[in-house]
Amino acid sequence: MIAFFRNLYFNSRLFYLIFGLALLFLLSYWQEWLYSITWILSMILVLLVLIDIISLFRVDAIQAKRKVPEKFSNSDLNEVIIKLKNGYKFLVNLEIIDEIPVQFQKRDFLKSIYLRSGEKEVFTYTLLPKERGEYRFGNLNVYASTFFKLVRKRYTFSYDQPVKVYPSFIQMKKLDFLALHQKTSMHGIKKIRRIGHTLEFEQIKEYVRGDDVRTINWKTTAKHNRLMVNQFQDEKSQPVYSVIDSGRVMKMPFDGLSLLDYAINSSLAFSNVALRKKDKVGLLNFSNEVHHFLKANSRLSQLNRILESLYKVNTQHYESDFGILYSRIRKHLTQRSLVMLYTNFEHMSGLKRQLPYLKAINKNHLLVVIFFENTEVTKLIKEEPETIKEAAHQTVAEQFVHDKHMMAKELQKYGIQTILTPPGELSISTINKYLEIKSRGLI
After folding, report:
1. What pLDDT score does 233 carry?
2. How many CB atoms lie within 10 A of CB 206?
3. Domains in the chain: how many in total?
């Protein structure tokens, strides 16, 4: 009985009809002939309500199921599937209310559909997460009502489902095409095979003027009775590290995501491209200490290890210690590597403090410092000032933008590669820089 009353709901149509009957009873005070008619209408309404209740509660005839992916992709639209089936022998109106995770702050979800007897229905809706971590769906509630829509029966399906939100693997798949050979000439980048002296042997060919005489293969020369040389190509499996600063400078938000989330999404997409280019990829995350370190590896399983490590990275409230970063790189990165450092500098003084460590890292490795344009400041510059106050704000904003470009030039002066990019273009800018470095044979 308790379950009956717990699942019994009255529709607004019933309350409107009751209000109408009450108004007719009031009017019957002056028009007595209305009194009898109103009582007849009241009895009909009671009868219809009883028919509605008996029809809906006689059997449990509604089936529903929520299907969610095993994991969500951060900052992307993720589909949730709802499957319904009507087991009643009549047409029903269903109102579906799904208990969406609290992180979305969405409390107005409502889907209304009609289902004939025995009919099935599948519909989807999308969710856009803005934070990594574990999300939890609550119950799936379905309210069924007949053609009269006087009462509703609630069906509660307990699907307490946890879903982990990972860095944007959807973005990673979208940028996967950049790893293809025929696509690496995008944005003015030309793929050039550089004949080098690395340990990776390519072929033996006949000597032509201009070849290095030190590469002459004397045994093959004697066999063919003409000069033959060994030809080498750039080593493919080179170590590439994504180094992510998770200090307080990376907590700044843009379009609902922190700079740290942009860096994490970018490093995942970039690592995927580097793996497909046969390089070894690794990961290092630091703030006031080193939190995660994955040694570079060229196995495909490395991408899953990187994904699991990035899933756990959180923004710290400490100032990042580049001295600890340099110490860890010097100790564990024994082979010359490409180091993609995701960080941010808002003032020249901040860069000056860390510059000695950056120069020291670049001495033994190829360092690429990736930092961000402040898009809000850039928008402010483009606006037309209407007051002296707005003009003053615009002047300060122009100084901020100028300082960012000066930081990039300061780093380039010491031979440090730089990427200064808006957060939304981070992934494509990082991948293109990597392809440029590969094509120029800088590592």
Report:
1. 61
2. 12
3. 4
User: Is residue 377 in some structural domain?
Assistant: yes
Are residue 370 and residue 297 in the same domain, yes or no? yes
| Structure confidence by residue, pLDDT tens digits, 246-299 | 998 898 888 888 999 999 999 999 999 999 888 999 999 999 999 989 999 988
> Same domain, yes or no, for 364 and 241?
yes
- Is the CA virtual torsion 394, 395, 399, 402 positive or negative? positive
Cα angle value 64/65/67 (rounded, 5°): 155
Residues 217 and 243 in one domain: no
Cβ contact 344:249 at 8 Å: yes
Does residue 49 sit within a domain? no
306 and 183 both lie in a single domain: yes
Beta carbons of 11 and 148 less than 8 angstroms apart: no
CA distance 361 to 267: 19
- Are 385 and 391 a contacting pair, CB within 8 Å? yes
213 lies in which domain range? 205-230
Residues contacting 321, CB < 8 A, separation 6+: 286, 287, 288, 289
Banded model confidence at residue 179, pLDDT cuts 50, 70, 90: low
Residues 305 and 357 occupy one common structural domain: yes
At residue 322, the pLDDT reads 94
Considering the domain architecture, whether residues 212 and 272 belong to the same structural domain is answered as: no
Mean pLDDT of the chain, nearest integer: 88
Same domain as 89, residue 177 = no
> Three-state SS across 345-389?
CCCHHHHHHHHHHHHHHHHHCEEEEEEECCHHHHHHHHCCCCCHH
315-330 pLDDT tens trace:
878 889 999 999 999 9
Our CA dihedral for 148, 149, 150, 151, rounded to 10 degrees, sits at: 130
* 3-state secondary structure (DSSP) of residue 328: helix
Q: Which of 259, 420, 76 is nearest to 267 (CA)?
A: 259
